[in-house]
From TrEMBL:
Keywords, in A-Z order: Glycoprotein, Membrane, Receptor, Signal, Transmembrane, Transmembrane helix
Gene3D superfamilies on file: Immunoglobulins
GO CC annotation, single: external side of plasma membrane
PANTHER family: CYTOKINE RECEPTOR, INTERLEUKIN 5 RECEPTOR SUBUNIT ALPHA
A Pfam family reported for this protein in Swiss-Prot or TrEMBL: IL6Ra-bind
Topology term for the membrane: Single-pass type I membrane protein
Cellular compartments annotated: Membrane
Domain Type I cytokine receptor cytokine-binding: 11-94
GO MF assignments: cytokine receptor activity
Principal location: membrane
Coiled coil regions, renumbered to chain: none
Annotated InterPro entries: FN3_sf, Ig-like_fold, Short_hematopoietin_rcpt_2_CS, TypeI_recpt_CBD
Descriptive protein name: CSF2R factor
Length: 154
């Protein structure tokens, strides 16, 4: 249902600082300035569908994203629905059910490693560096991470 080309495109969600998630999208190709979008989601099968409480808007005032707080990501499915209207007419809906940690529309920006410690000795001209893995929303094994160290002489 709805007019062709009015559904959102390029739906992507990014998790950052462990429990925050931003979902963004582009307006449909034939969307007019009076088109408005609404995002609903259900983070797991047991919960109710809820509407976004904090929308991001474009220059025309159209909802083009949502900011979520206190998001818990585990091995679970999530359901996303973006629908809306323009001039009182329904637009095409966008629906997606995804496995949160493996689907391409969810990306996690990691925090830096924690408790970085450097111990250098002048006599041996060596330094030892230790750290703990970054906090993440779902990765439990530290062996999943690869690190790169850049050392600069100052």
């Amino acid at each position: 249902a709805g007019m062709n080309g009015t559904a959102i495109e390029n739906f992507v969600c990014v998790i950052f600082n462990v429990s925050f998630m931003n979902c963004t999208w582009h307006v449909g190709r034939t969307a007019t300035e009076d088109t408005q979008y609404f995002l609903y989601w259900r983070p797991s099968g047991e919960e109710d569908v809820t509407e976004c409480q904090s929308y991001m808007k474009d220059n025309c005032g159209r909802n083009t994203g949502c900011q979520f707080q206190n998001v818990t990501i585990e091995n679970k499915n999530a359901y996303f629905l973006v629908n809306g209207s323009r001039s009182g007419q329904n637009i095409q809906s966008y629906e997606r059910k995804i496995l949160l940690i493996s689907d391409y529309i969810i990306v996690e920006k990691l925090t830096p490693p924690l408790n970085v410690t450097v111990n250098c000795t002048e006599a041996s001209h060596r330094c030892s560096i230790w750290w703990q893995p970054p906090r993440t929303s779902h990765v439990k094994k530290s062996s999943c991470f690869k690190y790169e160290i850049l050392i600069e002489n100052k």
